[in-house]
């Protein structure tokens, strides 16, 4: 079996022989052989088209799970298919299903808001079937929730294409779920490095891992400040992981992704008190996305696009070595940064890598730089669960990047909201003290700070020197900051791997 899928996935384009299957899940389209039994249940149960039901088909003796979409209106999007599919699979497992067929929507839409309904139906099932890495490793008996998933559509050509697409996405999301969901010890920085080494062994991805403290001190001083407390414990020591994919033919564009990988965020000296620390092992989901996205890149091998991922893996620990507010640290860019709050560590751990990538971007074709992070509680509060936020700099905005990403995200079921960087975001981080250029953060939680999810993007531009690459500069560089605090999947939900679908659709497909 594929190590990065939750079970075997089988394409089925006939329901004639069901002898090796025990359950059929129906979301929207009812296969002709089941139409009588569906009519019977519909006439008997008024809630049949709005509730999940499970029953036996007397003709085939097979278990049926019906998870209808219900009534849809203007404010529903294609994710309704994934949600219905998750419910169907969950019910099938509760009923004892081990060999489950999922029936895809029969209509093949090539335009409109539901054109990715079949893809979302499959991805919803795979999301539900995911088993956390620690359970797979510790209790091998439980490493799969079912033995196999069949995916049914009457058109074999369409079926093959949508299953192939879904599995490519899912292998990336699976790796992102493993890295993002592992606990603070299982997915501490050195272990993330080992996981990624296995993930990309003998592939088209070049891997470089920095673990040498002297190199980190010299080249990544802001990252080093965060890592200082953790680095005294070998198994928590930070790693900077580079994943590079070079297009086989002459590259026309370059996508560079820098992810926040805070494997555990205690807040540091500004400790997260009062019960708000739990769940902070998910603060590495930006870097987890980068790892998962590179898995997708590795599988799909884009012909004309270079992709570089940087995973900034660090633990924000507390101890006698921990960095504190008021320290002034000279960033890789030369900017002198005054620490305001040690809980604003995400921007610190990415800014030097962003500075390094900014230099590299200048010599690559049509570069677009990204930071991706579960950066602020403010983002979560502003857009809620299930939505990522994009903030473009001038050159990215000029190309309409945010609008394009939003349009694609809405279509493929990985939605974005657009936020706009304003003058005030930069003013908020400008120091007024001689000898200090940038203030890292104020000392309120982001959720109590005006523009709390926008200003960190301005900080990263100032601290990395990207502010000198605007539309009027001699070397404009596109840069977008993505805050995924609302979309990455908080404990106890399964990590989502977002925004893999939207970024892939916008930049690779
Ligand atoms: Zn923090």
What would you say about this model in short?
By secondary structure, this protein is an alpha/beta fold. 35% of the residues lie in helices and 19% in strands. The two termini are 27 Å apart.
Characterization of this structure:
The structure is a single chain. 35% of the residues lie in helices and 19% in strands. By secondary structure, the chain is α/β, with parallel strands linked by helices. It folds into two domains: 8-181, Leucine Aminopeptidase, subunit E, domain 1; 189-507, Aminopeptidase, CATH 3.40.630. It has an eight-stranded mixed beta sheet with strand order 7-8-10-9-13-17-14-15, with helices on both faces. Strands 1-6-5-2-4-3 form a six-stranded mixed beta sheet, covered by helices on one side. Strands 11-12-16 form a three-stranded mixed beta sheet, with helices on one face. Helix 2 runs parallel beside helix 3 (117-129), helix 3 packs across helix 5 (156-181) and helix 5 (156-181) runs antiparallel to helix 9 (285-300). It is elongated, with a radius of gyration of 24 Å. The model has no long low-confidence stretch (mean pLDDT 97). The structure holds zinc ion. Zinc ion is lined by residues 265, 267, 316, 343, 345. The site of zinc ion (ZN) has 5 residues, from loops.
Topology:
Layout: E1 8-12, E2 23-26, H1 35-44, E3 53-57, E4 62-66, H2 79-94, E5 99-103, H3 117-129, H4 133-138, E6 148-152, H5 156-181, H6 189-199, E7 206-210, H7 213-219, H8 221-230, E8 239-245, E9 253-265, H9 285-300, E10 305-316, E11 328-330, E12 336-338, H10 345-361, E13 367-373, H11 377-383, E14 388-392, H12 394-398, H13 401-412, E15 416-420, H14 423-427, E16 438-439, H15 455-464, E17 478-483, H16 500-507
Parallel strand pairs: 1-6, 2-4, 2-5, 5-6, 9-10, 9-13, 12-16, 13-17, 14-15
Antiparallel strand pairs: 3-4, 7-8, 8-10, 11-12, 14-17
The protein binds zinc ion (ZN).
Zinc ion is lined by residues 265, 267, 316, 343, 345.
